Here is the input.
Amino acid sequence: MRESSLPNLGVGLIGTGFMGRAHALAFHNARTTFELPFNLKLAALADADAARAEHCAQSWGFDHSHADWQQLISDPSVQLVAITTPNHLHFPMAMAALDAGKAVYCEKPLAVSLEQARQMHRAAQSAGVVTRVGYNYQHNPMIGLARQMIEDGELGHIISFQGEFSEDFMGDPQSPWSWRCEQAHAGGALADLGSHLLAMARYLLGDIEAVCADSQTVHGQRPTTRGGQEQRPIAIDDHTYALLRFANGARGTFASSWLKHGYKNHLSFEITGTQGTLAFDQERLNELRIYRPGAPGRDGFQRLLAGPTQPGYAAFCPAPGHQLGYNELKTLEVHALIQALCGQGNEGPDFAEALEIERLATAIRIAASEMRWVTVSDI
Here is the structure.
């Protein structure tokens, strides 16, 4: 009875890879976890492989499937378009959805170039619809706690940020070429991993005014297929490092690598103020560590453990220490999106914020290429 009295919100999902499945799970979980202002309908799913589109639509609970993403966007049962395709397809899909007046939930990075990101932002402004970009890690309740502690002055005046996002899935030089290895597809460690870290730094500490950077391509070629002999040249960054100057006066470091053996999801930071230090690692996503100066011999880092006192956590579990995971963060991201669609919140990066992240990433690329400091506002 309750569902029939609510307005429908039809979701159209484009893409059936890992991230497509994560979105489907998040929409399902949001319906069962939260009291939503809409009757959330999984209306349509699109994939270029018609058989896979039909199979995933049935398996994931979507009403019907399309083999053409443009048909999904024009589908009258779809009001929200979720884009989980390779990066180079974000621009045409989002622009078409915005032109149709539909809300857009796009995976990161927003686009493959700064000019595309600018056009997407302008189109979103003209359409007047809600947009969100999938920087889901900042929806972690512990990241919300970290931001609140910083804003409340618990660390004093912030003086430094040390951030790193490293994984090892490209550490083997025999790992095959993929679209992530092409600059035209926004490939490379900076775009693929580092954009998450840039989003996190801005979320916690605000604008970054200037950058100086260096990057390197360690493996100049990779096999076309796993185990194959044919090689393809690689020109994107395997790792990138930068110095950061924040608008609040803090200084910082940035590191992004997909070659760092032993790390699987090492999105981490240490933020130091005049009264303490805060540390986080996504591989231990239910914990924060905080250091506050104390009596000699009795000071040290304290572990703060996630629990129902942090907003969002209690929706999944009433007890501390029972741990949230990646899919819960994605569900919290979807919930924030739905709240925004009904005018009840403004959490999460929209196309305007994603444009600033792309501007910052572009500044880092220029700084690395030209071996100089770059003022971000000049980009």
